[in-house]
Amino acid sequence: MLKIKQLGLKFFSIRFYSSDAIRVRFAPSPTGYLHLGGLRTALYNFLFSKSKNGTFILRIEDTDQSRLVDGAIEQLVKDLTWAGIEIQEGPKVGGNYGPYIQSQRLDLYREQIEKLLNNGSAYYCFCTERRLDLLRREAIKNREVPKYDNKCRHLTTEEIKKNLEKGEKYCVRFKLSSDVTSYEDLVYGKITYDVALNEGDPVIIKSDGYPTYHFANIVDDHFMKISHVLRGLEWQISTTKHIQMYRAFGWDPPNFGHLPLLLNSDGTKLSKRQNDIKIAHFKEKGIFPLALLNYVVNAGGGFEKDLQQNVKMRIHTIDELANGFDITRLSTHSGRLMPELLFEFNQQELKRLLKNEHDEKELLKEVVSLLQEHFKKSSVDSNLQLDEDHIRSILHWSVNRITKLSDLLKNDMLFLWTMPKSCKLKEHDINSITELLKELEVQDEFSREKLAKFLKKFADQQNIKYSMFMKTLRSVLSGLKKDDFVGRTKYS
Predict the structure, then answer these.
(1) How far is 27 from 63, CA to CA, in rounded Å?
(2) What share of the chain is helix, strand, coil (3-state, %, to 5)?
């Protein structure tokens, strides 16, 4: 790695890799379930590695043992797999650089922390929580940014030895350098930040023996041979700190790229507390995986010009997205999610799936399952029409009317699946319907245009208001009440 020293700045150049050395990782904490922000990070890492014939790795960063959620790791794997993101190395897959769960790598962290303690880059800190809390309060009182005052950095060897022999509780901190560090962000360009000016020496091993994120991810990225780190913008300010740790070990840092924020449509930040941004939520609501991926990338850019312009016009497969991915085209502005586009993408994906024989059969099975589940709980007492040809015909007919398969179970669509119940009609309506049947029997063509003209003419001849006549006709044919036809929106 080339180091350049100019005007007091230390600038660390990026390493360049051949395509077979491209290794990226998605490293979530199992403190909750996968949401859109995490999916976006995983997706861009996956597309980047796929575009370079590299390797996508899932690593679980569970060093914060107090916030773990039972079953979160298993659900993360399920959600990524459902979305079509292939995990090539990870907890359930294995690989040459495991284990891929940080709590199983504690021996490695202990070995590496000894190196930093021995070369003077780290030190034992015996400050109590009470002292640290007083420091925070004093800083806030003086309208200063709270930070550690590096007191224990100046302990003598003898003082450290005595504290350890007495069994004093301690953590390990990293010594931040006072010089300014710069690096080239793959998305934002040159970033310069004096971390020591704004922060105290950070904890790298907690008092419970577990490493902090800042230390563990450095060690893991090095030993897992990660070539590129693509992560959220919130970690950009910590990157110069991480580069100092790489330097303390004598290691070359990977390439860093930070992804802009993903926002709600109103400009607010996504929150893990939002149940409607969990991946499981979209799956339960009948959103197709590829529709969700296209929805996410639509908000952030990162593709060749032609593909980016067409991203709203049609659905793109994972291979197409990977082939067109260009990290230099990622937007540096926060991306806003537009919920109405999700339904458009889902409709596009439904159309695409219906064009493939295998995918069409899978859709038929899914519709059957939805119908059986729905009518099991429904009061409808008619026989279901589950004939494969009938379902196929309905799917192709409805593809421009629905945005997800569950739309076929709405009240104004139920007539498609069951025989209508008898409905009460006035004598005048009965006479009109009887006369209509006679007229239809002698018609030789039933095109949509001709039938519409015929029905309008028939209503005039019967001296019936056309709109009222059509409601009566719909009720007879479908068994639906007139209120079932009112108030529908395109995406309801």
Answers:
(1) 12
(2) 50, 15, 35
The predicted structure's pLDDT at residue 431: 76
Of 80-89, 169-178, 238-247, 307-316, give the lowest mean pLDDT range.
307-316
Amino acid symbol at 198: N
Distance, CA of 287 to CA of 79 (rounded, Å): 13
Look at phi and psi of residue 8 and say left if phi exceeds 0, alpha if psi is from -120 to 50, else beta.
left
Residue recorded with tokens 């003209």: 453
Q: What is the 3-state secondary structure (H, E, C) of 330-395?
A: ECCCCEECCHHHHHHHHHHHHHHHHCCHHHHHHHHHHHHHHHHHHHHHCCCCCCECCCHHHHHHHH
| Alpha helices (H) along 142-191 | 157-165
SS3 258: strand
Across residues 336-362, what is the average pLDDT?
Answer: 94
Compute the C-alpha angle 4/7/11, nearest 5°. 30
- Among the listed residues 200, 194, 196, the one whose alpha carbon sits nearest the alpha carbon of residue 182: 194
* Vertex 408: Cα angle to 310 and 358 (nearest 5): 60
- Rounded to an integer, what distance in angstroms lies between the CA atom of residue 46 and that of residue 3? 30
Q: How far apart are CA 127 and CA 169, in angstroms?
A: 8
* pLDDT score of 267: 82
Residue-level pLDDT at 19: 44
Report the predicted TM-score, pTM, of the whole model to 2 decimal places: 0.83
Query: How many residues appear in the chain?
Result: 492
d(Cα 270, Cα 323) in Å, to the nearest integer?
28
